[in-house]
Design brief:
Elements lengths: L1 H4 L7 H10 L3 H10 L7 E4 L6 E5 L5 H10 L10 H12 E6 L2 E2 L13 H7 L4 H10 L2 H15 L18
Antiparallel strand pairs: 1-2, 2-3, 3-4
Helix pairs in contact: 4-5, 5-7, 5-8
Length: about 170
């Protein structure tokens, strides 16, 4: 009778899940890994000249976007790329919100603010979100350029990829 206490009517789900996971082949694991979406989380970017103000930045930037922003900043012109204008494009197009003193700012309808929002354009006195509103919002060109570098770093453009010596790996993999 005591044996019945230790014999469940149905198998433990955690045990079954572990058994199923351990029976996965490396190909199954690779398929599952590749199926996962790769996206960098939103980061906060301090606006140095604006006490307590941070921009919510989505650092998910494609090469296509980078090429477009460089072109818009004059890369192919006779004067060459304007680094501050390029920085405005990076910051302006990746901003997905604004925070002040740790609270996200929304308009009266509950919509988050970005540089194209009418309230930001009105606050800055500008009609173009990029580069004008970004430039007015930051106040100084060096802060915009430093901010853009931080955004690009958060996007992974400064990441290094390390090689691994396969002879140093454990044989228990």
């Amino acid at each position: 009778m005591a044996d019945e206490l230790y014999t469940p009517d149905e198998p433990d789900k955690a045990v079954l899940k572990k058994a199923a996971k351990s029976s996965e082949t490396p190909l199954d694991k690779l398929k599952a890994t590749i199926a996962e979406e790769v996206e960098r989380p939103v980061v906060l970017l301090e606006v140095p000249a604006r006490d307590g103000v941070h921009l919510r930045i989505s650092p998910n930037i494609t090469q296509s976007q980078m090429r477009h922003w460089r072109k818009q900043a004059g890369e192919d012109s006779k004067n060459g790329l304007d680094p501050t204008k390029f920085a405005c494009f990076v910051v302006g197009h990746t901003t997905v919100g604004v925070e002040i003193n740790g609270e996200e700012v929304f308009d009266e309808d509950g919509v988050f603010l970005n540089f194209a929002h009418a309230d930001i354009l009105k606050m800055t006195g500008e009609s173009r979100p990029v580069p004008d509103a970004v430039r007015s919002f930051f106040g100084t060109d060096p802060h915009i350029e430093a901010g853009a570098l931080a955004v690009l770093e958060a996007a992974g453009y400064s990441d290094t990829v390390e090689t691994v010596d396969p002879t140093n790996l454990s044989s228990t993999i």
